Amino acid sequence: MIPSILPTYNRAPLSFVKGEGAWLIEADGQRFLDLGAGIAVNAMGHAHPALVAALTEQAGKLWHTSNLYQIPAQQELADRLVEATFADTVFFTNSGTESCELAVKMARKFFHDAGQPERTDIIAFEGAFHGRSSAGIAAAGSEKMTKGFGPLLPGFKHVPWGDHDAFHAAIDDNTAAILIEPVQGEGGIRPLPDQCLRGLRDLCDERGILLILDEVQCGVGRTGRLFAHEWAGVTPDIMMVAKGIGGGFPLGAVLATERAATGMGAGTHGSTYGGNPLGCAVGCAVMEHVATPEFLAEVNRKAGLMRQRLEGLVAAHPDIFTGVRGLGLMLGLKCKTTNTDVVKAGYDALVATVPAADNVIRLLPPLTITDAEIAEAVTRLDAAATALETA
After folding, report:
1. How confident is the model at residue 82 (pLDDT cuts 50, 70, 90)?
2. Over pLDDT 70: what percentage of the chain?
3. pLDDT tier at 164 (50, 70, 90 boundaries)?
4. Do 286 and 301 have their domain in common?
5. What whole-number distance in Å separates Cα of residue 263 and Cα of residue 105?
6. What pLDDT digit, counting tens, does each position of 247-276 carry?
7. Does the pTM exceed 0.85?
8. Are residues 147 and 177 in the same domain?
9. N or C: which end of the chain has fewer CB within 10 A?
10. Are residues 264 and 360 in the same domain?
11. Confidence category of residue 18, pLDDT binned at 50, 70, 90
């Protein structure tokens, strides 16, 4: 008999009733260090006072009006994002998946309005993850994502991760855009080297196509810059955002240059809930903290500390781990043993991590994690590794 919740997740036997900063608490009082942060969502940790205050204040005023009317908090958040980034304009969504849908539409509409309607193809990397909508799974292309869900949305090509020669070969007269995550999350915490991202920007400029960046997981301070592409000193034409921007409230966005968004006039796209007063009030509170040089400097400092301790962990357990990779507080432990076994052993040691492809476990703690909590997290990971070695 099918359960009342559609069984599309293999859920861990854990049920949390409260969160405090980097901690998740079960009903019996057990406290887990949260190195997943809701899969890079809870950038400010659980129940951050500033976010709680913003949500509570707005909830007492107005929840929803729809985009038929002006929404002051939406305007404020859009202005903050435009001021802090490459973008000239923003559309608010509820999720990264919805952001992907609009990014694809925007790129294709750009060339349609430019008199080149045949330019609809989007080139993406193998191992990518862009959500689970029709466009998202077609963009990813893997059998795991697409099997049983055909016919797939046409117009996507896939090239090996980081293979610039393959990118050059894939571009033709039908190409509209390149779509890429600066750091693959689901794909196993694989940062694209800065020179490669710069090369893709140059390639797009050379061939007259658009660069779409998916910063749903790696954005909003996660890598130590507000957005990961800033490390390479380049800017995209269109960018997908979600997860951290709402600090736990469902919120996403598509950021774009005026040129790339020129075709998206009234009636070309919409969202009932996107940019609602509640979500945007929380998003403004997130930006007020995360988008400051002081906050980002702390992310980088803590990232260095955490990476150093993780390197020691790897050295101490060569039969369990083979290396550390990632950027900022978006880190991965490459496992020698099965990564899901490491995740489960972590649960026993009261530390929560997230599995990924390439036999990696993701470490995506709240950006507000303390030095003491980093030390405790590695101690608990050490206990999990020791338990696996002695099992």
Report:
1. very high
2. 100
3. confident
4. no
5. 10
6. 999 999 999 999 999 999 999 999 999 999
7. yes
8. yes
9. N
10. no
11. very high
List the one residue out of 131, 75, 74 whose CA is nearest residue 104. 131
pLDDT of residue 229: 98
Q: Which of 290, 315, 332 is the last residue of a domain?
A: 290
Q: Is 109 exposed, middle or buried (0-12, 13-18, 19+ CB in 10 A)?
A: buried
Per the CB < 8 A criterion, the answer to whether 209 and 173 are in contact is no
d(CA 290, CA 368): 10
Please indicate, yes or no, if residue 39 is contained in any of the structural domains. no
Question: Does residue 177 sit within a domain?
Answer: yes
Q: Give a yes or no: residue 108 inside a domain.
A: yes
DSSP string for 36-63: SHHHHT-TT-BT-HHHHHHHHHHHTT-S
Looking at 290, 310, 336, the residue that finishes a domain is: 290
Mean pLDDT of the chain: 96
Domain assignment of residue 348, given as a range: 16-34+294-390
Q: How far apart are CA 246 and CA 149, in angstroms?
A: 30
Judge if 138 and 167 occupy the same domain. Answer: yes
Structure tokens at 124: 């993406």
Whose CA is closest to 320, among 388, 379, 391, 376? 388
pLDDT tops 90 at residue 162: no
